[in-house]
Specification:
It is a single chain. This protein is mainly β. Helices cover 9% and strands 18% of the residues. The protein has 1 helix and 5 strands. It starts with 10 loop residues before the first strand and ends with a strand.
Length: 107
Amino acid sequence: TSILSSNSIKYLFFYDCNFLEIPKEISNLNTLVKLTFDNCNLKTLPEGFETLNQIKRLDLRNNQIETFLPYFNDCFKFKEIILERNNISEEEEQELENKCPDINFRI
């Protein structure tokens, strides 16, 4: 059984992994509250990522993500999103902050 098929994981942290993308199976972790991919060489997020209904904190710092908006449909579930040291443009940073002013963004 894969750890990514568990129905009870609340916190998942990956550090210094050489992912090009987040494994799609993470979209099935409906109990996930905090998710961290720090310095994992990420460029994109998986489809279905928005189905993580319980997630409150998303930390994607130190990656190579260029855009976040396509994955950002439901901003009300988040309390904090960390996108520091990625390749997100200033225009997109501003658009994210304007779209959901109640979220603590760290870009």
